[in-house]
Design brief:
The chain has about 325 residues and is of the alpha+beta class. The protein folds into three domains: about 120 residues, RNA polymerase, RBP11-like subunit (Gyrase A, domain 2); about 120 residues, RNA Polymerase Alpha Subunit, Chain A, domain 2; about 60 residues, DNA polymerase, domain 1. Strands 1-2-14-13 form a four-stranded antiparallel β-sheet, with helices on one face. A four-stranded antiparallel β-sheet has the order 5-9-3-11, with helices on one face. Strands 4-7 form a two-stranded antiparallel ribbon. It is rod-shaped. The chain starts with a helix and ends in an 18-residue tail after the last helix.
Length: about 325
Amino acid sequence: MHILHDEIGAPQLKITRDGNTATLVVTPLPSGFGVTLGNALRRVLLSSLPGCAVTAMKIDGVTHEYTTIEGVKESVFDIGLNVRQLRLKKHTKGSEEITVTFKKTGVITAADLKASSDIEILDPSQVIATCDGANTKKKITLRIEKGVGYRMVSNVDSATEEDAEIILLDANFSPVTRVQYDIAPARVGEQINLDQLTLTVDTDGALDSEHAIKISAGILESYFQLFNTEDAYTDAEFTTTFDELKKRRENAAAAANEAQEVAFTPIDILGLSQRTLNALVNGGITSVEQLLSTPNNQLVQLRGFGQKAKTELDQVLVDRGYVSAAELPSITLDEEK
């Protein structure tokens, strides 16, 4: 972590959620770190999170996508585009097939799919095809897989498919639908060239948007550890860690509290007269340390603290070694004051 955080404090992280959208705000960050973190998280969010997609389809009697089906409005190519838009959630790894039959009339949607309990249909309204007197004995079979990133048909060995009617599809497994980050200026004290990172993530519901951010951060961390795991090198003068920063601040706070507790000497030990003691206590001075740090012009303004009390106090402080006689100011006040 940048050594600048010793001056500006540790970054504060806030995550808010609204449905399938999560917004992350982190500030303050050193100049340039907003773009560094925002861009890295965005790339991982869009490319490396696990999700579910349709990877192949089969329509009875159809061997390629550049054809039509009697009684169906959409071409096979259009049906392939529609099924690629299906939003699904699969709980286990591996592939599974789901089916839907053609209706005589009407629209076939994701709600008509026959799937096992391992698959959730996140958007039942997604249109697959529109039928007008189609053959109800025919059906569409979809292969559902869980994977990561984007897989193109050109990268798949189609020769391994034994069924000639299987049509392979490009598959986008990512559950993240949108990632946006913004960098705004931030300020801490006299430091004005700091960053505030705002990252907004939308998902299709297959993965919680907040969990998506955390998984992405974990993936980045695991890769960065490759560079500094063995014989880790740090420069203590210019780098630090969140744990070290937190520990130093806790130690400083504990030391301050301890010093405050140690440096409290009750004013009673001075053996002042009751009248002088009452004047000091009523004025909020209850320790010797407070007394020594209070200017003389404030002392003489205390109610009931007159010239006699001042003379008595000066003598006691000199006798007990708290001050020397040369340090005492020469002040002449009216006794009634």
